[in-house]
Amino acid sequence: MAPPWVQHAMWWHVYPLGFTGAEHAALGPGAPVAHRLAHVERWLDYLVDLGLNGLALGPVFASSTHGYDTVDHDRVDPRLGDRADLDRLIAAAHDRGVRVLLDGVFNHVGDQHPLFRAALAGGPGSPEAELFRIRWTDDGPDWDCFEGHRSLVTLNHDSPRVVDLVTGVMTRWLDAGADGWRLDAAYAVPTAFWAEVTTRVRAAHPDAYLVGEVIHGDYPAFVAESGVDAVTQYELWKAVWSSIAERNLHELVWTLGRHDGFLDHFVPYTFVGNHDVTRITSRVGDAALAGHALAVLATVGGTPAIYYGDEQAYRGVKEDRAGGDDEVRPPYPPTPGDLAGPDLAPDGWATHDRHAALLGLRRRHPWLHTARTRVVEVTNTRLAYEARASDGSGAALLVALDLDETPWGLPVPAGATVAAHADPAVVPGTRVGGTSVDVPGPGWVVLEV
User: Fold this and answer.
1) What is the layout of strands, in order, in the sheet containing 230-231?
2) C-alpha closest to that of 24 among 77, 71, 76
C-alpha cells in the first residue's frame, strides 16, 4: 500500500534534458558543467499555481544521450548541473510542499557505463562480467539489450550484486531527499528482483513511493509480486484518447470497468500524456477535445500526472525513428510569461485555466483518489458516469462527456450543482435548474450530486 501522502499527490511530469534545452549528447571531457536544473526550479511556483504538488523528474543522472542510457547513477548529468543543483531543486520543491519523484533506469545501463566497459575488458572471469548477461563467443562478446537497442545493456537481475547496486542507488537518493522512484521499463525486470529491492529500500524509507513503468499485462499481479505501490495505467491512457478520437466511448466504459478492478488492489498512476507518446492535443485533434480527456483524468481513481506542455495545449507527434521523441520533449521558455504563442499553442492559456479548474476540483474532493465509477448512460459519442467515494460516505460526482456537435439534455438529480464546466463562463456552484442539464456539444460537465 502506498504511503498516506500519495492520496493527495498530483504530479507535473518533466523531462529535464528536453525541458532545459540540453544538448542531445554528453558533454566532452573538460567541458564545463551546465547548471540547467535552476531552470526547472524557476517553474516550481507555476507548478503549485496550477494546483499540483509533485514534480516527477525524468532522468537526471549522467548518461550518453537521452538519459535512459545511464553511465553513472550517482552523478548528476553535467548537461543539467551537479549534485548541489539537484540538492537545491529538491529543497526548493520541499519548501513549497512539493514532492519529488526520480526516474530510475535499472533494467539496463548505457554501453559506456564503466562497469560494462570493465566487463568487456576483463572478460568472462572478471567480477564485472557477473553484472551483465554477456555471451563470450569466438566472434567476440554478445549481450542482452533492451528491445534490440545494442547501446542499452541489460543488467543480470539474477545477480545478488545487481540487487545491491540498485538498492544502494535508490536508498542513497532517498537519503538525499527524494520522495520516490519511477522505475523505468519495470515490466522487463523479473518481479522477484523488484521484491528483493523494494523490501530493502522500504526498510530504510517506508514512506517512499515506488511506481513501475508497466505497459501491458497483469497489473495487480505485478504490483503484488514486485512490492511496488503502483504501475503506470497505460490501458486507461489508450482508452481515453482512442475513445475520443474514434468516437467510441464504449471503449472507455469497458476500460473504466477494468480500472475499478485494479483499484481493488492498488491505486494506478494515471496520465493522458508522457515523454514517450504523442501529445493528447495532437492525438484527439484539438485542445477542446483534449479537455474531455482531462475531465476523465481528474475524476477517476488514481494518482494523476500532467506531462509538461499538455497544460498549455502543446502539440507533438511521437515517431519511431532516431530523434522521433524530440517533438514531445521540447524546451520550456525562461518564464511562464514567455509560454505558448500563436504558432506553438494558440489556445495554451485557456487550456492552462481548464487544468487549474479541474485540478482544483480534484483537490477539493480527495476521495477521488480511490473513487469507483458507475456508468449512467453511454452511446458512441456521449457518456455519463458517476464517480463515487469508496469509503461509504456517499460523496459523488456526475461526469458527462459529449462528443456530438449538438447539446445533450442529461437528466440529473434535483439539487445538482455545477462543479466544473467546459464553458469557463459557467461559475462552479451554479445550481442546475430543474431536473436536467444541457451538456454542450462538444463539451463536458461535472456536477455535484
Assistant:
1) 230-231, 209-212, 180-184, 99-105, 54-57, 11-14, 303-307, 269-271
2) 77
Query: C-alpha cell of 241?
Result: 484518447
pLDDT tens, position by position, 81-108: 999 999 999 999 999 999 999 999 999 9
Distance between CA atoms of residues 244 and 285, nearest Å: 9
Residue 315: all three cell numbers together: 502539440
Tell which residue, 211, 207, 203, 106, has the closest CA to residue 163: 106
Question: Which residues, in sequence order, are CB contacts of 356 under 8 Å at separation 6+?
Answer: 49, 50, 51
Residue of 367, 364, 327 lying closest to 345 (CA atoms): 327
- The C-alpha cell 543539467 sits at 80
Structure letter (DSSP) for residue 144: -
φ/ψ of 240, rounded to 5, equals: -65, -55
Rounded Cα distance between 13 and 19, Å, is 10
> For 358-394, how does the pLDDT look when each residue is reduced to its tens digit (9 = 90+)?
999 999 999 999 999 999 999 999 999 999 999 999 9
3-state secondary structure of 317: coil
Query: pTM of the prediction?
Result: 0.97
Q: Residues 368, 387: contact at Cβ < 8 Å?
A: yes
In a 13 Å sphere around the CA of 18, the CA atoms on its Cβ side amount to 21
Q: How far apart are CA 176 and CA 181, in angstroms?
A: 13
DSSP helix/strand/coil, 88: helix
* Residue 14: all three cell numbers together: 518533466
Q: Cβ of 110: how many Cβ atoms within 10 Å?
A: 23
According to DSSP, residue 441 is labeled: S
Put the strands of the sheet holding 108-110 in their side by side order.
108-110, 149-154, 145-146
Please say whether the beta carbons of 339 and 333 come within 8 A: yes
Cell of 407: 447539446
DSSP 132: B
Cis previous bond, 32, omega within 30: no
